[in-house]
Amino acid sequence: MSEMTMEGRTRLDQLPEWHALAAHRKDLGDAHLRDLFEGDPERGRRLTLQVGDLHVDYSKHLVTDETLRLLRELARATKVAELRDAMFRGQRINTTEDRAVLHIALRAPRSAEIKLGGEDVVGEVHAVLAKMAVFADRVRSGDWTGHTGKRIKNVVNVGIGGSDLGPKMAYEALRAYSDRSMTFRFVSNVDGADMHEAVRDLDPAETLFIVASKTFTTIETITNALSARDWLLTGLRAGEEAVAKHFVAVSTNAEKVAEFGIDTDNMFGFWDWVGGRYSYDSAIGLSLMVAIGPDCFREMLAGFHLVDEHFATAPPEENVPLLMGLLGIWYDNFHDAQAHAVLPYSHYLSKFTDYLQQLDMESNGKSVDRDGNRVGWQTGPIVWGTPGTNGQHAYYQLLHQGTKLVPADLIGFARPMKGMPPGLESHHDLLMANLFAQGQALAFGKTSEEVAAEGVAEELVPHKTFAGNRPTTTILASELTPSVLGQLVALYEHKVFVQGAVWNIDSFDQWGVELGKVLAKRVEPALTEGAEVPGLDTSTEHLVATYRSLRGR
Ligand SMILES: O=P(O)(O)OC[C@H]1O[C@H](O)[C@H](O)[C@@H](O)[C@@H]1O
């Protein structure tokens, strides 16, 4: 049995700390944030924490000091710190895959030592980073040319899930730091439309494909990579020899990379102890490094590392990822909240919530515990959201007046992105005024008395009343830099970790994505050749038949 199976661990819902929280929840009842703030004139200043460049305000949560104490007690009883230390030590805490979980090693400084099976991994990490840096610099400087000798101007990352969402999100976030003379695109969907739209206006002679896949067996990525190769060779009217200058791979699977026809000299490796959704700071971030350059990439890694250190060492009262994880548990398990919204007030973070969906939902969307027993409590929330001001004119109505409780994170920056023209810079105060106003409106609402006092017709008063008491965390930093992005991502990684530890689930496997893959393979021949698929249910059978007839087959 693996060392990290929490043998003998008392079921979460049988812990006295769990029951203490349930009783406390009853005592608090519908205590309103208006009263909590009124009763504590220092609350808005007191309930804030700082980690690195991130100022985190958690005063607008439905908590008292006692709630926070009880939540920390729950973390203690569920041994969150012990599991964290086991992760940092390289123990095999991903029990169902029997793997260590060491994404923190990807951003450890060269001087650090992290051992796995007696071998230090930090040296290997830095060797790959150095190889990436040489390659990125060669592409950026024009030293690396295509088959015809032309300079590479376009980089297309071909990957999916963790091999797409991270680099894509970070590229968008750090566009202002990127080489604007180059074009970066990200193809993930097996729908041919994705590849078609990504390459239709590109010159193959100037285009480099980075095929990113941890396993190098993911059908969408391999299908897209093969089509990219056809597009390239047809466009160049060249043979296989052109592939080497236009295709590089990022993978843990050298054999499959070679089989595909990519020279393994042009392969950038990583390791099975990096989960896909925790991998964009590994070689999976190669497209990002080409975009922003090795120095900015390293600054981003330093930002990650800063938060890793904080998570590993800050006392529970000051530990931001611990706090954020526990607040989520408070709503998930003691307020029946189903969802969590992440609402960045930065257009550059437009893909941030998409990225977090995989990070959080693939990690904590589980319903059995580490020992395979069905859990008796809610686990990971439905994570959603888009940049804030757009959301305000779409779905915020539900946040303000709907029947569901949706705790939210509001993320904003004091300064606009670097390089913003002065005329557009002036939008920034308006953008941020919206962030602050939304946090305020969600928390404090507007009472019916206040509405009536404005002279609103009696029958409209209920419609114009805002109950408030809708919790938010506000995360404010001075500016979105590579380091700040790293800090933000590490914060959420560790928040997800804390929740998985409390819920006693394996946050690092993803068996739930397998069944669909297997069934797709079985169904495909039915679509193409009309093959009999034994045991097909009547609904799917009829859908397949309808599809074939619509396609004239
Ligand atoms: O990087 P790859 O091996 O191609 O995997 C890409 C993605 O697909 C899988 O199905 C998993 O659900 C993801 O965790 C993974 O990130």
Automatic annotation (TrEMBL):
<dbReference type="InterPro" id="IPR035482">
    <property type="entry name" value="SIS_PGI_2"/>
</dbReference>
<dbReference type="InterPro" id="IPR035476">
    <property type="entry name" value="SIS_PGI_1"/>
</dbReference>
<dbReference type="GO" id="GO:0097367">
    <property type="term" value="F:carbohydrate derivative binding"/>
</dbReference>
<dbReference type="GO" id="GO:0006094">
    <property type="term" value="P:gluconeogenesis"/>
</dbReference>
<keyword id="KW-0324">Glycolysis</keyword>
<dbReference type="GO" id="GO:0006096">
    <property type="term" value="P:glycolytic process"/>
</dbReference>
<feature type="active site">
    <location>
        <position position="393"/>
    </location>
</feature>
<dbReference type="GO" id="GO:0048029">
    <property type="term" value="F:monosaccharide binding"/>
</dbReference>
<dbReference type="InterPro" id="IPR018189">
    <property type="entry name" value="Phosphoglucose_isomerase_CS"/>
</dbReference>
<keyword id="KW-0413">Isomerase</keyword>
<comment type="similarity">
    <text>Belongs to the GPI family.</text>
</comment>
<dbReference type="GO" id="GO:0051156">
    <property type="term" value="P:glucose 6-phosphate metabolic process"/>
</dbReference>
<feature type="active site">
    <location>
        <position position="517"/>
    </location>
</feature>
<dbReference type="GO" id="GO:0004347">
    <property type="term" value="F:glucose-6-phosphate isomerase activity"/>
</dbReference>
<comment type="pathway">
    <text>Carbohydrate degradation; glycolysis; D-glyceraldehyde 3-phosphate and glycerone phosphate from D-glucose: step 2/4.</text>
</comment>
<dbReference type="Pfam" id="PF00342">
    <property type="entry name" value="PGI"/>
</dbReference>
<dbReference type="InterPro" id="IPR046348">
    <property type="entry name" value="SIS_dom_sf"/>
</dbReference>
<dbReference type="GO" id="GO:0005829">
    <property type="term" value="C:cytosol"/>
</dbReference>
<keyword id="KW-0312">Gluconeogenesis</keyword>
<protein>
    <recommendedName>
        <fullName>Glucose-6-phosphate isomerase</fullName>
        <ecNumber>5.3.1.9</ecNumber>
    </recommendedName>
</protein>
<comment type="function">
    <text>Catalyzes the reversible isomerization of glucose-6-phosphate to fructose-6-phosphate.</text>
</comment>
<comment type="pathway">
    <text>Carbohydrate biosynthesis; gluconeogenesis.</text>
</comment>
<dbReference type="InterPro" id="IPR001672">
    <property type="entry name" value="G6P_Isomerase"/>
</dbReference>
<keyword id="KW-0963">Cytoplasm</keyword>
<dbReference type="InterPro" id="IPR023096">
    <property type="entry name" value="G6P_Isomerase_C"/>
</dbReference>
<feature type="active site" description="Proton donor">
    <location>
        <position position="362"/>
    </location>
</feature>
